Amino acid sequence: MEQIIDLCFDIRQSCVPLLDHARALAYLRVAEEQADAIGDRTRLGWAYTYRAHGLYIAGDSRGAIEAGEQSLALAEALADPDLLESANVYRAQVAHWVGDYRHAAELLRRNVTTLEPDLRRRGLPSWHFVGSRTYLSWCLAELGEFSEALARTDEAIATATAADNVYWLVYACSGAGLVHLRRGAFDEARTVSERAVAPCSGRDFTVLWAMPAAILGLACARAGRFAEAIPLLERAADLASILGVPILTFLAEARLLAGRDDEAAAVATRARELAAQREERGWEAWAWWMLGEIAATRADVSSAGDAYRQALTAADALAMRPLVAQCHLGLGRLHRRSGKQAQAVEHLGAARTMFRDMSMSWWLGEAERESVTPL
Prior knowledge:
Layout: H1 2-15, H2 21-38, H3 41-57, H4 61-78, H5 81-97, H6 101-121, H7 129-143, H8 146-163, H9 166-183, H10 186-197, H11 206-222, H12 226-239, H13 244-257, H14 261-278, H15 281-297, H16 301-317, H17 321-337, H18 341-357, H19 361-372
């Protein structure tokens, strides 16, 4: 029965890159039942942990959270640092995806600061050294804590490079790419995401490729390279359903920058609907911001204001400081063009202060130009 359980885990590992979520979850159910039947709490903990990951990539956030909490409880009770490290990563993944960035960062910092030293003392490897730092950096980027985020991605890239592990390197560079994208460092985002995309050629890294490819696509769009950016984003959106909302939001932004606002609106609306359906609050906030940008471009003041305010309310509740600042910038622009100078000054001032505090120099420049340029 122990061998059956372990074989189920191995089959699950093979199903993940094939995107065969249903089969992976079916084998994990068998493993869970067998482990429960023989009272093997360690294997039961791994079954819960893997199920949390399987439900997460299948888009079932609530189920993933429930399984993740079960795995954490067993890992804590068993005082098993290896199991706990994995349980923290998979529970943090879904926390990140639903916008619970503080909780996700707390779990991942525990891996970095407590569990990894414990594993080293026991002579055990850390299987999630790179993954913990990648997801931690993504959470920190959404919170505007860029210094720590960049330090963690540097650690991840250095470790992946030293180990000559291509999978880890793609993961690590994806983490760094998103951090640079969020802080407005588009050249750096393009450089590091290219480093992640290149090794995927000739390997079965379809899902892993999609995120750095999307980051690269948006970074290229910001540089005006639309002929390269938009096909890359469209392919990424077609391939990776679990990454649908962020990639769709990036695609909408690229299309807007290219002057294709009708197409951008359709994609952004789909992203918002999908995020709401999956209860992915952070991604939904970004989709609302995108809808505000599109409406502002069309001079639809009422729709733009409503969308920016939706995004601002959600971002403020989730402590998404970069997005809060970008919403203030959008509202400031909107009020300024509508002749509401007092409101414009208030929002633009808030945006400048926040961008300066987070060292978001590109966005700070945008806010400063808006503040001084005559209508």
